[in-house]
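Dear support,

Our group has been running a series of protein-ligand predictions, and this particular one with NAP is the one our PI (initials K.S.) wants archived with full inputs and outputs. We had some confusion internally about which version of the output was final, so please treat the block below as the authoritative record. The input we submitted was:
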Amino acid sequence: MSDALRTIVDAALSGSTAPDEIANLPLPESMRAAVVRRSEVDIFGGLPSSDKDPRKSLHVDQVDIPPLGPNEVLIAPMASALNFNTVWTSIFEPLPTFGFLERFGNESDLGKRHDLDYHIVGSDAAAIVLRVGPGVHRWKPGDRVTVHCNYVDMEAPAGHDDSMIDPSQRIWGFETNFGGMAELSMVKVNQLMPMPTHLTWEEAASLSLTLATSYRMLVSPNAANMKQGDIVLIWGATGGLGGFAVQLVRNGGGIPICVVGGQEKVELLNSLGVDTVIDRRAEGFQFWKDGVQQPKEWRRLGKKIREFTGGDDVDIVFEHPGRQTFGASVFVARKGGTIVTCASTSGYLHEYDNRYLWMNLKRIVSSHFANYKEAWEANRLVDLGMIHPILTETYALDDVAEAAYAVHTNQHTGKLGVLVNARAEGEGVADPEKRARFGAELEAWKRLT
Ligand code: NAP
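Confirmed final output from the archive:
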């Protein structure tokens, strides 16, 4: 970190420097950022996805500071977190994300700033505000914030019921440049939320993208609209989305049926009081064989679920693995049940037997990140101590490619944090007494390592 950046970040963190003074301190000439380079988009040509190694494509480079526009805020991310979208960006799949930046550049002069030969990744941050652009009044330099990744103008009428429907909606740090894995980042003011006061920078940074996605999928009327008593099948229940889904289902009076890969993950969930766990590896489910779906395996999963429920089928399936599991997910949902999907990790050309859908009046509901209100409500649950981070490991910015590799190869559990401007793990807690009140539960979720 440069001396100029350290001076302004320390002033902003001090709590005793006036917002105007912070805003007048000079910014550094350039900054360090985790990027993929346009010149390298073909380096994995011909390799299967599993062999594309983010450690070859994700770099920490010295780059320019982005210029601030109206309704924008310059933040210093103290920490960020790894999300699967950084894996997609770094293996250039399904397409290089430079296409998103080019389209953004063709849209407006402000969009042109994003169309560069490098793409700064990262769709989560816990940060301190350093500068606000014209038109910003609710936030000021020195505010501690968490940042959600719904980047939207709200100029079009279509987004005003739900900003995820807005034609300009993008995911920050994936479909825009200047993501959170940089010493400085540029975000829209309507991405800011107050940082939960009992959390460290890296804990606070590890929440928003996956928590708000899970919140919308399960809780929001925009998706599955879960009610008390609902039985919810959660794929990847110790992963980034799934770890929050388990907490949301339990908070909302639902019954989670968790699927994980490996006995140690079963034991971790058991230690958190979740006994309804299926180990997909031990069961050896083979939903596909030689390119053909295996309905008898769907039935075997359904039978396993009924062993836990006393014969009931699931009201909601929390879907994201995609092609490998989707046929089974449609099959095991109860009559009138909902399959809510936000992703296709194992392939996006899904196949399922439509008879089970229409004859049984099931619904497939799509969901994608969250609007500001949903992200804010999810963030509030964290501040209230009703949802806890599932941060299991924290990497230095220089090691971000290792973190992306761990997620790509499914060697991780929960969320992986990335320290950016924070000097060390454990900093940033504003209210230690409140932290002590939630101590036991906070620690329990960290056992997901
Ligand atoms: P994650 O931390 O890697 O967790 C996903 C878990 O799913 C894995 O740990 C694995 O758990 C399980 N899984 C993976 N492949 C599977 C398969 N073939 N069959 C069954 N289970 C499988 O990732 P995440 O952060 O939860 O994200 C999951 C997906 O959602 C990614 O594709 C991501 O891009 C997407 N996503 C979308 C949005 C959105 O807004 N649309 C937001 C967040 C994430 P086990 O091995 O323990 O079973």
